[in-house]
Automatic annotation (TrEMBL), chain A:
<keyword id="KW-0819">tRNA processing</keyword>
<feature type="binding site">
    <location>
        <begin position="72"/>
        <end position="76"/>
    </location>
    <ligand>
        <name>ATP</name>
    </ligand>
</feature>
<dbReference type="GO" id="GO:0005524">
    <property type="term" value="F:ATP binding"/>
</dbReference>
<comment type="pathway">
    <text>tRNA modification; 5-methoxycarbonylmethyl-2-thiouridine-tRNA biosynthesis.</text>
</comment>
<keyword id="KW-0862">Zinc</keyword>
<feature type="binding site">
    <location>
        <position position="315"/>
    </location>
    <ligand>
        <name>Zn(2+)</name>
    </ligand>
</feature>
<keyword id="KW-0833">Ubl conjugation pathway</keyword>
<dbReference type="Pfam" id="PF00581">
    <property type="entry name" value="Rhodanese"/>
</dbReference>
<dbReference type="GO" id="GO:0070566">
    <property type="term" value="F:adenylyltransferase activity"/>
</dbReference>
Automatic annotation (TrEMBL), chain B:
<dbReference type="InterPro" id="IPR016155">
    <property type="entry name" value="Mopterin_synth/thiamin_S_b"/>
</dbReference>
<dbReference type="InterPro" id="IPR012675">
    <property type="entry name" value="Beta-grasp_dom_sf"/>
</dbReference>
<dbReference type="GO" id="GO:1990133">
    <property type="term" value="C:molybdopterin adenylyltransferase complex"/>
</dbReference>
<dbReference type="InterPro" id="IPR003749">
    <property type="entry name" value="ThiS/MoaD-like"/>
</dbReference>
<dbReference type="GO" id="GO:0000166">
    <property type="term" value="F:nucleotide binding"/>
</dbReference>
<dbReference type="InterPro" id="IPR044672">
    <property type="entry name" value="MOCS2A"/>
</dbReference>
<dbReference type="GO" id="GO:0006777">
    <property type="term" value="P:Mo-molybdopterin cofactor biosynthetic process"/>
</dbReference>
<protein>
    <recommendedName>
        <fullName>Molybdopterin synthase sulfur carrier subunit</fullName>
    </recommendedName>
</protein>
<keyword id="KW-0547">Nucleotide-binding</keyword>
Amino acid sequence: MQEHTSLTLEEYRRYGRQMILRGFGLPGQLKLKNAKVAVIGAGGLGCPALQYLAGAGVGTIGIFDFDTVEASNLHRQVLHTTARVGEYKAESAKAALTSLNPHITIITHTCPLLPSTALSLLAPYNLVLDCTDRPQTRYLVNDACVRLDVPLISGAAIEWAGQWCVLGGYHQGGLPIPAAESRREDGDHKGIGRATWPAPSLPTGSSDQMSPPPTPTPRTRRPCYRCLFPQPLANTSGNDRSGTCEEEGVYGPIVGVVGVQMAAEAIKVVLGVDDPLPRLNLISMSPALTADPASTSTPFRSIRVRGPSGKCKACGEGPGVVVGDDLEAVGYDEFCGVRKTYDQYAGEGEDKVDVMGKRTTTQASVERISVQGLKDGFYDGRIPGGYVTSLDPVSPERSGRSEEGDGKKVLVDVRAELEYGLCALPGSTNIPMKAFLSDPIGRLRSISQTAHLPSEVYFMCRRGNDSLISAEALRAALSESESEAGKAVERCRVKDVVGGVRAWSDQVDPTFPMY
Amino acid sequence: MKPITVLYFASIRTHLGIEQESFPAPSTLSKVKAEIVSRHPDDKTKSILEGCMWSVGDEMADEDEDGDKEIKGGVVVAVIPPVSGG
């Protein structure tokens, strides 16, 4: 592909303030113009990263995102707008960036990056930014970058904390020629080769014919994501969405700062003025957790990490290397412990619920009911008005009796207290899951206000994962106490509301405020 | 001897609800890890720690290789869980 060797007058004006910085100059600005940068994810990290890459004049930017803009994204995904809710994020980001800088080329990719497609989709690029939100994609993007031999800027943030680092390629080695433009070698998988790195620069100044030929300066390879994080964080929650912004919450400025740092690293990598040693940078913006003046939130830490690990399963040399030409053989979902949960079936009808019921055959006596079943069984078919919030004069920590007040049916909402305070069903009782699991029967007795256990217990949460875990824990505790007593002590039906308050909002009453 | 300061980041900070703790010096990474678990003896602490990276001073440390190396008083140890959101 043709290299740009000059700038237009407009580009001089636009980029002048950075071109006079050390490391930039005309050669630096042309390196940016010739760079082909793929940004995976146009969300919390991708938006600020894209903004600064486009502003700085990266000539070709590929935006990968198959998701569409939702209102709940807008507090942090600052390229999208209220008017563009429902549009592809990649297209929405492109619209914003085009109005920021019309001198660059933006390519949108609205299909997901898969093991079968990652190599061919990323082959035209020579730098990748990982702004994704799930571990399996992180490992896939890393492995594709290792295979294509292009550098990767990795960033991640959740709740109040984030981290970023520069991976792959060579320290201060700039960018290679993309794999798609490189000469293909025979036998390459699906014809996709590797990026071509320019020969290391030769020391200049020696033209003396008598002296030996100069030797190239050795280049230092950066580690890859698997060198730093060989194993994903174990997911013990039984919820595949754990670790996502939807489940954990996210502070808008944290993704802003990490995304901007990623762009800052990317620009330095393009210019070849990045750190000479690999570093992992950590940042936290958490609110003060104590009033102790000696305590500090230590918001920032930059740690020197080791170079490439010989044991690495992606870029290492050993026999355990799993990453080759065929990324489909790697098994990312299994590696990251991703299973199909009921969540993918929620709201799709009773048949699907039955399918998932089989997952819990060991605790078969937990009844899985729909939100319609909750309405019929707990509210006698009525839609209860007046949802409870933490601002209500009557504390939501109420008796937990159903509206009939007979104490025989209880509805336990196991969401965190803060979430319960956002909005809750009337007549429900909040017992956060962690507290409930510590003593299921004791907690239940504490709300039944009689010597007996309630005859029916409904469990509810946000989406239906935690409620099932809690219901199963109660069922198991009841079975245990029955076998200790040698007989059925009390009859107590345990019901789990599939889909949680989200399904209630979707299927029963849209006036329930879903967050 | 000054104590060892352990900084908690990301999910381990959220889970424990503290930013940092002091541990007696001298120690080793293996001992510090065991002591964190004994101070916070729940399953989740244990499972988060299993997936964490560690730094000692300003450098990343490998639990397998560096677990028994001495850590002097005054050194800052960071517990670094992988973060995947974005």
